């Protein structure tokens, strides 16, 4: 029998779309509290890897084990419900996992305040900038305290100050709650500052693991 200390495990995973090979024989293991970055050109396969980890896409070859009790996914586009306020968007996610309404609304407010959205709790998404919507989407995922957090370019629309703050929050979640985090970014500085190690998409199916 195997002891499971991993949150996510890829074993010899292969994935291609027609002739476009994104990964080939990719194996890695993500443990609780680890933060791992995904780097590579646009179209290299970062989103595909996150979708595979979440079980939204099936691998063509190999095996993927997701041992997380709760997996959170922050998509590249915020995907907020337009007819709900920022606070309601976060609270609904909490209510979906059984939190009582008054408590969910309170927690949602606190989470949004952490994201420096104090003045916008009751704003609808169409009144929020792209960066603000991205932060609501992050707040929604973080509020659920996932064991595995999958983030697709979570800071792409944020200014430098907020990028640094988000990076700190991600590290905090990993350190204090033991969450494992997989995030993609086009910023080498952000990858180096935030990640314990990095999966680098080099093209033609090659994915290197580096510090
Ligand atoms: N369902 C699909 N069918 C066919 N091709 C796909 C599908 N999903 C993704 N692709 C292709 O796979 C490649 C990798 O896409 P992916 O979204 O994983 O890249 P990415 O590294 O996240 O890019 P970006 O940095 O621009 O977000 C792209 O060339 C894309 O066109």
UniProtKB/TrEMBL annotation:
- All copies of domain ABC transporter, residue ranges: 8-209
Q: Name one GO molecular function term.
A: ATP hydrolysis activity
SMART domains on file: AAA
Question: What Gene3D superfamilies does the database record attribute to this sequence?
Answer: P-loop containing nucleotide triphosphate hydrolases (3.40.50.300)
Swiss-Prot/TrEMBL keywords: ATP-binding, Nucleotide-binding, Transport
Which PANTHER family does the record match to this protein?
A: ALIPHATIC SULFONATES IMPORT ATP-BINDING PROTEIN SSUB (PTHR42788:SF13), TAURINE IMPORT ATP-BINDING PROTEIN-RELATED (PTHR42788)
UniProt protein name: ABC transporter domain-containing protein
Report the source organism: Dethiosulfatarculus sandiegensis
């Amino acid at each position: 029998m195997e002891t499971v200390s991993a949150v996510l495990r890829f074993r010899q995973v292969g994935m291609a779309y027609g002739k476009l090979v994104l990964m080939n024989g990719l194996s890695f293991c993500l443990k609780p509290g680890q933060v791992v970055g995904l780097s590579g050109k646009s179209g290299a396969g970062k989103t595909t890897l996150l979708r595979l980890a979440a079980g939204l896409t099936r691998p063509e070859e190999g095996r993927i084990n997701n041992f997380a009790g709760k997996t959170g996914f922050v998509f590249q586009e915020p995907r907020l419900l337009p007819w709900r306020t920022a606070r309601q968007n976060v609270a609904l996610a909490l209510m979906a996992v059984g939190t009582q309404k008054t408590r969910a609304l309170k927690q949602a407010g606190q989470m949004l305040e952490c994201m420096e959205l104090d003045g916008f709790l009751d704003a609808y998404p169409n009144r929020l900038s792209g960066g603000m919507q991205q932060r609501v989407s992050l707040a929604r995922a973080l509020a659920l305290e996932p064991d595995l957090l999958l983030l697709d370019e979570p800071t792409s629309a944020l200014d430098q100050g907020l990028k640094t703050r988000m990076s700190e929050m991600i590290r905090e979640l990993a350190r204090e709650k033991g969450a494992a985090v997989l995030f993609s970014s086009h910023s080498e500085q952000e990858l180096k500052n935030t990640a314990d190690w990095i999966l680098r998409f080099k093209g033609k199916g090659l994915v290197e693991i580096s510090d």
